From TrEMBL, chain A:
Domain DUF1468: 13-148
Presence of keyword S-adenosyl-L-methionine: no
Any coiled-coil regions, as ranges: none
Chaperone is among the record's keywords: no
Transmembrane parts of this sequence: 48-69, 81-109, 129-150
Name assigned to this protein: Tripartite tricarboxylate transporter TctB family protein
Keyword list, A-Z: Membrane, Transmembrane, Transmembrane helix
Automatic annotation (TrEMBL), chain B:
DUF112 domain segment(s): 20-438
UniProt keyword Transmembrane helix present: yes
Transmembrane portions of the chain: 20-49, 108-135, 147-167, 257-279, 315-333, 354-376, 388-406, 418-443, 463-486
InterPro entries: DUF112_TM
Name of the protein in its database record: Tripartite tricarboxylate transporter permease
One Pfam family in the UniProt entry: TctA
UniProtKB keywords: Membrane, Transmembrane, Transmembrane helix
Length: 155, 499
């Protein structure tokens, strides 16, 4: 029974990821006309690539369960850190227009700072003040990038 | 005497006060950010990209190139002083450089790195200028099938040289190519994988993807491993190598420069490969291999020269053939496209002042870096005392503004957030991101050339193997795959690519 155990969890998951992407792209590509080798339609190349990727995914997955595969567990995930960082980026995008650059940067810096195990309120607030001034000086006044500086209510 | 004529055009462009200033800014910013651990040239260029939007194309490219090799210089400083490679090509420098620092010879190690890099930079500039003409002439002989074969070779080599199992690297290349299909199909005009989202009609942008993966996801990773920096506290004095040091470092520099110049030109090559290869070579040739890992000056001089030479000559395939040989060059394509310059054989003929100006500015930049780095090294080292908890929000801010500025739209910001999650998954699965990005950048050109080649041959795929040039390029790719399958080479590669 030991033969079918997933010895290398990391590689198995990698192969599964490839396979999942391959299936997704292949199914979507089926909606596009394939054409012929001499006159390829928009669906020809994607199907070809998806088949190659599916084959690679299967080879990687098989390699992870064969008896000689090295044992490797999946690594620990830090979902909290990921959530703070990704969340701060999404908030920046969502708040840039209603709040303007100053407000959106403030939220971005405070929320992302929370991802650090060494978070302190004073540290994060000082950092926010310094970075906002720097960004206004460099990007808005120095380079003249078209960024909304203040909340849209004031415009 | 074309070479001198061309270099003269180049220096005339590079020596304009404005361009000198931008080269200086690029070098300064590059060093500044390259010193900070966890930020390599790629993230640095991506972050600073918006600064170049407002500039003239030649000034923008000169500044970007300056940022690139400035980051390389800065990376060496971090490697030597705190045993953390600022970027992947300084990984080997940590081995002997940090040992030298522990013996109180940090100054000498830093000087060796700077002098080696400068010398290599001078040689590589000349090589670039000399090779550009002939290579561009060759590129003009290339048809669709040759370009297709060349890009396949490049992608195979890039996967061979990335860390982790080869098959997973190839998988990442193919995945990157699939992602590159998103957008409008140029031949039929129909939308593929865009799902009706208008912002996707132009395809997935390279910059948000690179920033999501190399900027944001990297931060999540760094926050997990909260090791404190092991800063060398002693003052850095005594920059001057002794006579004995010179006797040992000069041959290593010469060999490193030669190796780096050659390997940089290879598709998939560049700074990382060059520095690893040089370290191995120095250790093999040394009469005292036991000193390596304990502060051998050759172990700093060789790889540092090699990585700078490789970094510079990796511009050759990009500027002459339009094929980026590594991820940083792929990002340069993105940067050039923003300024409406499409890298390839036409750049040299259509835009000679830009082309030669960029090459000449590389020499100028190297000179500036020598001056910036040797006397000011103490200042750079001080930067390392900024705690990461202040640093990473700054990176977040620069990346976010940078992503927004590509199109002045928030769609790219969300795109980067999605790729942050995706990049984190890749980190956890230890899948290499570099081949993915190369696949993404080269994907459209590969499809285009493949389709054109098939139209010309009326659907007969064997033309790829019957035309001598494309056949030999594909044969080289096949040989690379076969070699990597050999057990001894496989073991060697794993050893060499281990960090």
């Amino acid at each position: 029974m030991k033969g079918l155990a997933i010895r290398n969890q990391r590689a198995f998951a990698s192969g599964a990821l490839f396979l999942a992407f391959a299936i997704f792209f292949f199914l979507v590509a089926l909606e596009y006309p394939a054409g012929t080798a001499a006159k390829m339609g928009p669906g020809y190349f994607p199907r070809m690539l998806a088949i190659v990727l599916a084959a690679i995914g299967l080879v990687v997955m098989l390699g992870a369960i064969k008896p000689g595969a090295s044992r490797e567990a999946l690594r620990q995930w830090d979902l909290k850190g990921l959530a703070w960082i990704t969340g701060s980026v999404v908030l920046f995008g969502a708040l840039l227009f209603p709040l303007g650059l100053v407000g959106a940067l403030f939220v971005l810096i405070m929320v992302s700072s929370k991802a650090s195990p060494e978070f302190t309120w004073t540290g994060a607030l000082t950092n926010a003040a310094v970075l906002i001034v720097l960004c206004l000086a460099v990007f808005v006044y120095g380079l003249g990038l078209p960024l909304p500086v203040w909340p849209s209510l004031f415009n | 005497m074309d070479l001198f004529h061309n270099l003269a055009i180049g220096f005339a462009t590079a020596a304009q006060p404005a361009n000198l200033l931008y080269a200086f800014f690029g070098c300064l910013l590059g060093t500044l950010i390259g010193v900070l651990p966890g930020l390599g040239p790629l993230a640095t260029i991506a972050m600073l990209l918006p600064i170049t939007y407002a500039l003239q194309p030649d000034a923008a490219l000169i500044m970007l190139a300056g940022i690139y090799y400035g980051a390389q210089y800065g990376g060496s400083t971090t490697a030597i002083v705190v045993n953390l490679p600022g970027e992947s090509s300084s990984v080997v420098t940590t081995i002997d450089g940090y040992q030298m620092a522990k013996q109180g010879r940090a100054g000498v190690a830093l000087a060796t790195a700077a002098i080696g890099s400068f010398f290599a930079g001078c040689v590589a500039t000349l090589a670039l200028a000399a090779l550009a003409g002939p290579l561009t002439a060759t590129a003009l002989l290339f048809g669709p099938k040759e370009f297709f074969a060349l890009m396949i070779l490049g992608l195979i080599l890039a996967s061979v040289l990335s860390s982790g199992p080869f098959i997973e690297g190839i998988g990442m290349v193919v995945l990157g190519m699939l992602l590159s299909l998103v957008g409008t199909d140029l031949n039929s005009g129909s939308q593929r994988f865009a799902f009706g989202i208008p912002q996707l009609f132009d395809g997935l942008d390279f910059v948000p993807l690179a920033m999501g993966i190399f900027g944001f996801a990297e931060i999540v990773k760094n926050l997990e491993q909260d090791d404190k920096l092991s800063l060398v506290t002693q003052k850095i004095t005594n920059l001057f190598p002794t006579r004995d040091d010179f006797r040992r470092m000069v041959p290593a520099m010469l060999r490193g420069t030669a190796l780096g110049t050659l390997l940089g030109v290879l598709p998939g090559g560049g700074a990382v490969l060059s520095s690893f290869a040089s370290y191995t070579l120095e250790k093999k040739l040394s009469r005292h291999p036991e000193q390596f890992g304990k502060g051998a000056i050759e172990g700093v001089a060789g790889p540092e020269s090699a990585n700078n030479a490789g970094a510079q000559t990796s511009f050759i395939p990009l500027l002459t053939l339009g094929v980026p040989s590594n991820v940083v060059m792929a990002l340069m394509v993105g940067a050039m496209n923003i300024h409406n310059i499409h890298p390839g054989p036409e750049v040299m003929t259509k835009n000679p002042t830009l082309f030669w100006g960029l090459i000449a500015s590389m020499w100028v930049g190297n000179l500036m870096l020598l001056i910036l780095n040797l006397p000011l090294v103490g200042l750079w080292v001080k930067l390392l005392t900024i705690p990461y908890r202040y640093l990473f929000p700054a990176i977040m801010v620069f990346c976010s503004i940078g992503v927004y500025s590509i199109n002045s739209g928030t769609f790219e910001v969300y795109e980067a957030a999605v790729f942050c999650v995706f990049g984190y998954i890749l980190i956890k699965l230890q899948l290499p991101a570099a081949p993915l990005l190369l696949g993404l950048v080269l994907g459209p050109a590969i499809e285009e050339n493949f389709r054109r080649a098939m139209v010309l041959s009326r659907g007969d795929a064997t033309v790829l193997l019957t035309s001598p040039l494309s056949a030999s390029l594909l044969a080289a790719a096949a040989i690379a795959v076969l070699l990597i399958m050999l057990p001894t080479i496989r073991a060697r590669r794993e050893e060499a690519l281990q960090e």
